[in-house]
From TrEMBL:
Record Pfam families: CMD
Gene Ontology MF annotations: peroxiredoxin activity
PANTHER family named among the record's database cross-references: CARBOXYMUCONOLACTONE DECARBOXYLASE-LIKE DOMAIN-CONTAINING PROTEIN (PTHR35446:SF2), SI:CH211-175M2.5 (PTHR35446)
InterPro entries per the UniProt record, alphabetical: AhpD-like, AhpD_core, CMD-like, Uncharacterised_peroxidase-rel
Keywords: Oxidoreductase, Peroxidase
SUPFAM superfamilies to which the protein is assigned, alphabetical: AhpD-like
Species assigned in the record: Deinococcus reticulitermitis
Gene3D superfamilies: AhpD-like (1.20.5.810)
Protein name as it appears in the record: Uncharacterized peroxidase-related enzyme
Keyword DNA damage: no
Keyword field contains Oxidoreductase: yes
Amino acid sequence: MTTPPSRLSWIRVPTEAEAPEGVKKLWAKSEANMGFTPNVFRAQALNGEQFLAWWNYFNLLVNKEGQLSNAERELLAVVVSGLNRCTYCEVSHGAALRFFSGEPLKADTAAINWRHADLSPRERVLCAYAEKLTRRPDEMTEADLGPLREVGLSDEAILEVVQVIAMFNMTNRVSSALGFVPNPEYHTQSR
C-alpha cells in the first residue's frame, strides 16, 4: 500500500492495524484497482460500520449500471461539489469526469463553472437541476421535473438524478467539515 500524506483530515485517521476487517478489504481492493487508497476511505474509517454503509450506498449510486451514464453521474458530482466548494470531491470527481467523459477541458471547465463548459442540452438541464436542488431545495416544485423529462429522462432516471445529487451534498458536507485532503494522484489522472 502507498503511504498516505501525513495529514488527511482534521480528525484522527486510524492506522491499518486499527481498521476493521471490512475496511481493510476495501482499502486493499482500491489499492489494487486504482494504485492508491482514496483518502476519503481512510478518513472515514474511524467509524468503520458507518463508513461501509456509506460506501455501499455511494457505490450503488455512482459505480453501478444505472439510468445515467458514468459521465453524467460524475458531472452531477462535480457541479454539486463545486457549488458546495468541497475541495476533496471537486478534485476526485473532476478526475473521474475527465476519465469517463474523455474530455479534460470540458471536465475542468464544468468543475469551475458549468455554464462555461461545452455541454449537451441534456447535460445543461442536469446541471441546472443540480444547482437548484443544491442551493435552493426549499424552492423545488413539480415543474422542475419538466425540463428533465423534455431531455428524455424517465421517472426512474429522475429519481437517480435526485439520489446522486443528494449523496454528493451529504458527502461534501462530511468532507468539508472534517478537512479531507484529496490524494495527489487525482490531480494528474486523465490529463
